[in-house]
């Protein structure tokens, strides 16, 4: 017991010593000193660190803690109807139960007794020490007496420990202040009472029993004409708002709001009418504005904290606010309300953009409550906002000059005109309604019924009114100037809404689009009125936002009309095309001009760009030849600017508006430079799609466009204000072609990637590496170089890119290298990191192990040797899933290896390859299985092979593939191909290429330079054919026959090729190995004559242009521009439509590719170029070929889409691990069976055949 008393004595002494400076600052007032002690926890940051406080808390936790836990558990599991449901009620109930318990009473007695004893000891010590002190210590002596009274009072109840006498005196004091503040008291007494109230802590004010009386007195004081009373009371409310207690804030806010409600009801007659100017220097107006501003400031701040408090706090704030805003709203036809200024008018002047409402709607916590309130009894607030928007638009349209541009005045304004007040109300209502429409719950409040309108007001009605107001725009505000021009504000509001796909889908229809197109149509027809440049810019900005969403783009491209030309996209494209070509019809003398400005044309070209940078939009706008128009305008601007100024300037959106102080020459030159860069930027975006890339190549400006892209890419700039991604996807798209790769190399893009990669590998990035070298690499690729590596993979992912960069290139193999010498090209990178065959190369690397392992990864027998073994086996063997066995890539890939603790696969270091890597594939039975397809083919006659017969064949083929796909093999498969070709030969739309020349017409194609490549390919093909039992002859004979077929086909195709020296790819015969010819050769079991017969007949048909990549290489059947581009139809057409269907049918897959910086068209081109060898099993490869020939070449697109859909899970997964490119190129397509996807492909045919097949037939 003695130790406990000592602990209390020490703790109490320490507490008094620590707060001694605070007590001395009490200015000799015992009341203030007592108040300091009672509110010490609120003012002392170290309150909970005092030993005395810790002693009390430990006792409470020891004795009362278990009781509280037991009570909480009991009330939580109680299922009684009267059990508490809210946290605040639960806490209150548990606290009350604990305080009334016997344990709490005993603990209180114990603490009070020990504390009283310690206090007496301290007081005796103080008295003895300060006996000689006089009047200077009167404060401390009186404080000692007060402390005696505090600690000598009761040890019986909790209340006595907190000094009931003191609380009683405080209550009496508040009651006295409340009485003295009564409005009937003399002014001096009220002032004195208010002054004393301001010195009382806010928590005590709210806790007093006289708060209800004080509340009334405070509201009277706020409305009092005496400046001291009104201003001091307002300051008191501001002080109360600063307290972090929701009850105090709630009471303060409701008090202020209720006062304003009472004031507007009783004193609004003193305010001017809405038809009179408002002088804001009058004292009553100044005070009113200050009150509403304080209310508004709290409205703007409270959303950040109300989620911490009970819902009742939010509900009271919302209810009080909307009650105030509902006052004196004049909505009906026969309303008797006076035309006086309301609270909404003043709030509009203070917070013109309704920031308070925007913040209240931001969080779902408050949004639901607010929207429910607007739907219920506070609907007049919404009705008034809608009414203000509509009446302002109506009046502006009827009297265009009655509402001039509204801009802030310089200096401090003293008066608001009626028009300015009304305009502020309109802006506030516009922001109020537009923000509400942004959310689903807000849109559900529409249509809104207003008495003065015969029909409910829909969202479309509002949008049309706003768009019509934009038509009145006369001038565009200066950049950076805070203007409140009506058209600009309305445009911004509509743009924010149109960026929401949900809003566009629900609220924007053909009617709204038609109104948007009215200003554009006036420029396309000789008209008496043409809309201003500002109006056209606003319309273009709205259209650009619309096209950035899927729903908006679909609406503009197709609309809901049945006629093709009815879509808005055609009107916009026609205007852009004629503006670029200066072919707009002449207007009248009163019109704004016959030629739109660069800004207007650029804005509408950007809208078209938002449409043609997706596959669907490009196909729709193809007829307008926008790529030619933009390219011609760019060349014209480039010539005007001159070659001496051709260095690209910094492209900055802030430069769009020319400084007025600039000279005319400077403004003109600056505008011309911006115009040139705008055109180049829009032209570049044709490269976003495969077919668009072909069009860009045909303009001859691809090098300049790629150089411009590189300048923006290095600055980490986005593609546009409406794009979420950077240039990564576009770079990959460009790199899929030889011309694009050449442009990237010339622009320095490859050099930048290689330098970045080299810096990560060779240059230290921090000082730690100077003393501690990096650990030896164990992972396939270090994270520090992963991004650079993937960038290099994207660029070098296609064969045309590799051929363009590496063909006829020699390794430098220099005798010496310097440490600071960085590789400039891919061949130099390989020379420095991979082909390290000299001491000079080794000594020229700072980090030889890391760099060389990154390049080659072949060292001792460890994980890297295992990776080397994997690569050697993989490059030697060919086959799809189950047709080749690849070794594992790690020591613990399977349970057997983990148990044995060693690598179970033999290392492949000499020929022949170990038998463990060659699976046993059973040979197909020679017996011919009967099927509906074989019976149909057997019953067919040569004369019957017409269009009707082909439709019957396709129907039979589909049924057999769905039910008995295993029978479609061998002779049946080849017979199907041969008889289908016979039928297709009789159809002009399918036989699109020239008649096959006789063999005597063949000339040497000069393909001897490719003999090495061809020999390697022949060996691989023959080895694969023997492995899958497709060849019956011995390997030597089969190889000789295949070489003959390949040479014959090469010579045949050379007769129809025209070479160009611009690109390495098109400077000679087809540079790749012909996998399609090898496929046909294996399908006919190595028959030389039969394979040549099929290939020669097939070469005349449309499907050969897609199935056989070599068929149209540098072919004279292509237009000169397409032929010179080196872009094959497999990329520009098949890849384009694959992306089109993915974007419409499988947006998740399409987005995964974009986020990976990779494109579906690139991997599609890779698969199709090698005829799915190494990706699909041989059976699926043959089914792919026969399906495309029989069902139509558009089925090539549907099969690729089906494969990507089949791989959706893996694509999304590898997008997360950031190795999607590597996965798709290195791994076989597991589990894909062509016949299982026929139902899905039939559905795609029904939806897309008209679009896809029409486009594919246009290649010749």
Structure summary:
It is found in: Cell projection, Cilium; Cytoplasm. The chain has 1260 residues and is mainly α.
DSSP summary, beta strand count: 2
Low-pLDDT runs of 5+ residues are 79-85, 132-169, 588-592, 646-666, 766-771, 895-901, 997-1009
Average pLDDT, rounded to a whole number, is 82
Largest sheet: 2 strands, antiparallel
Strand content: under 5%
What's the overall geometry?
Answer: globular
Query: What is the strand arrangement across the widest sheet?
Result: 1-2
* Total of helices: 65
* Structural class by helix and strand composition: mainly alpha
Radius of gyration: 42 Å
As a percent range, the share of helical residues equals 55-70%
The N- and C-terminal alpha carbons lie at a distance of 106 Å
Domain BROMI N-terminal: 12-137
Keywords: Cell projection, Cilium, Cytoplasm, Developmental protein
Pfam family, one: BROMI_C
Domain BROMI C-terminal Rab TBC-like: 855-1259
Question: Layout of SSEs?
Answer:
Layout: H1 2-18, H2 20-24, H3 30-38, H4 40-43, H5 51-63, H6 65-76, H7 87-99, H8 102-129, H9 138-152, H10 158-161, H11 164-180, H12 187-198, H13 202-207, H14 211-222, H15 227-241, H16 246-267, E1 278-279, H17 283-301, H18 311-325, H19 343-350, H20 355-362, H21 364-375, H22 379-398, E2 415-416, H23 418-437, H24 440-443, H25 459-470, H26 486-498, H27 501-507, H28 510-524, H29 533-547, H30 550-558, H31 568-580, H32 598-612, H33 615-621, H34 626-641, H35 664-684, H36 690-699, H37 702-713, H38 728-735, H39 738-747, H40 749-762, H41 768-771, H42 786-795, H43 799-806, H44 826-833, H45 839-843, H46 848-855, H47 863-876, H48 895-900, H49 932-939, H50 947-963, H51 970-984, H52 1011-1027, H53 1035-1054, H54 1075-1083, H55 1088-1098, H56 1104-1107, H57 1120-1125, H58 1129-1145, H59 1147-1155, H60 1160-1169, H61 1178-1191, H62 1195-1206, H63 1208-1216, H64 1220-1226, H65 1238-1256
Antiparallel strand pairs: 1-2
